[in-house]
Amino acid sequence: MAQESIIRFEKVGFEYGHNKHILEEVDFSLRRGSKTTIMGQNGAGKSTIFQLITGVLKPVSGAVHLAPRLTIAISRQVIPRDQLDLTVREFFQKCFTETVYDIDPRIDEVLEVVNLPVAHDRIIRSFSGGQQARLLLASALIQNSDVLLLDEPTNNLDKAGVAHLRQFLIDFNKTCIVISHDAGFLNAFTQGVLYLDVHTRKVEQYVGNYFDVVEQITARIERENSKNARLAKEAIEKKEKANFFAMKGGRLRLLAKRMREAAEEMEESQVDVRKEDKTIRKFTIPAQTDLIGEIAHISSFSVMHGHKPKVKKVDISLNKNRHLLLVGPNGIGKSTLLEALASGKAPGAKIAPRVTIGYYRQDFSTLNFEDTVYDSLASIGKGLDEQDIRSVAAGFLITADTIRSKIGSLSEGQKGLVAFAQLVLQRPGLLILDEPTNHINFRHLPVIAAALDSYQGAMILVSHVPEFVSQIRIDETLDLDS
How many CA atoms does the CB half-sphere of 57 hold within 13 Å? Predict the structure, then answer.
């Protein structure tokens, strides 16, 4: 039974409407007990595959075959907005189609697994982003299903949370499929990879850990490029000979015709090399030009100490070209402080008058999900013509098709790229960023880090990804837990 195939995609095709093709003739199968990673560019359709497995979406063509009585639980990227005002108990109860009367002991059990012991009557909205990430994982675990689907499970998790989840998945003895852009995390437990190619809209299946598969893909591309170069060279040589013999006339014309046909066959034999994920273009976030003197000053802030808020005194001044990093464990109040600073309502902080604040929220709630991408960017880039806006959008891989889509229809990673495009158009004097690596393809992160490193205004950053932070100039670090 350990080698039984329990999920099989057979020639599956899927599209959103008539102009947004996602999958074409996708074939793969997964065996019971396997641990698989889904790789692919932002917007390629990774989360769509999860929705096809769970039955939320139906294929336009082909079929998804599941083993009889197979149960599936999914841990999504974010808690739905309509569930944020539920209590912990109500949130977990919604994981089941029927009322579970002994649910409290089961809640305690899964909360212990994710290392988040909390009261069952606490409101979901009151939890930090990292704590909500743990709740999402727990909501999948409590169902005790045959298959566990994890969509970006490390988003918002602090270092301890990622380590805890990594060990859990290493010890996990059921089938698990993970979408993540955290290469080191994936390599710890991955046994195989499904690579979703955004260009061919097909899935390539590989065996091995994450780093092994990346090497396999690279080697395959090199082989295909080498083969294509050889075939192209031979085709050119045959065409040149064919032209030479054709000019001689007589029987040599027949030989020339055969050579041309052979050259055409060589050209047709060239394989379509799988294109690597595109990376966003290098960009800068221009700073507000009329910044003079102190931009922001923080004299005190509030953190959660146990279950009670505690005020701490500091003396932090931010001028132009000054970068501040906020650190601390999940739940201490980093996002709460950033939100208060962005709104100008932080009791112990003062923002200079007429400073434009660029705020990147981890939940993208600064974006209007009903706006089209173009309208969202145009509302920020006032005075710019359509060509300028489209040029900025293209740098963030926002295509002609995507730019007329509603924000709410985009993947979480695409929403993040739209948020960065907004910051470029906004030209802020104070840049506030809350977990800007969440959902973003790892290939884009060095480009984003370089943009933040060179930002000339004042910046306040929260990130739990040390590899990302290490690429950015940080002038001062404020540990909220010290």
Answer: 21
- Domains parsed from the chain with CATH numbers: 5-71+145-214 (3.40.50.300), 296-479 (3.40.50.300)
CA 70-75-81 angle, 5° bins: 125
The contacts of residue 246 (CB under 8 Å, 6+ apart) are 252, 253, 256, 257
Tell me 424's DSSP state: H
Tokens of 74: 């999914």
Burial of 245 (0-12, 13-18, 19+ CB in 10 A): buried
Residue in 54, 55, 56, 48 with CA at minimum distance from that of residue 13: 48
Cβ proximity of 281 and 444 under 8 Å: no
Half-sphere exposure of 302 (CA within 13 A, CB side): 11
Residue predicted with more confidence, 162 or 246: 162
Q: What is the pTM of this model?
A: 0.69
Distance in angstroms (rounded) separating the CA atoms of residues 336 and 328: 12
**Beta pairing class for 458-462 and 323-327:** parallel
Looking up tokens 């509603």 gives 406
Cβ-proximal residues to 194 (8 Å cutoff; 6+ apart), any chain:
28, 36, 37, 38, 39, 49, 203, 204, 205, 206
Q: Where are the alpha helices (DSSP H) in 274-362?
A: 334-343
**What are the tens digits of pLDDT across the range 21-76?**
789 999 999 999 999 999 877 777 888 999 999 999 999 999 999 999 999 999 98
Q: Measured in whole angstroms, how far is the alpha carbon of residue 187 from the centre of its chain?
A: 17
Q: Give the gyration radius of the chain's Cα atoms.
A: 26
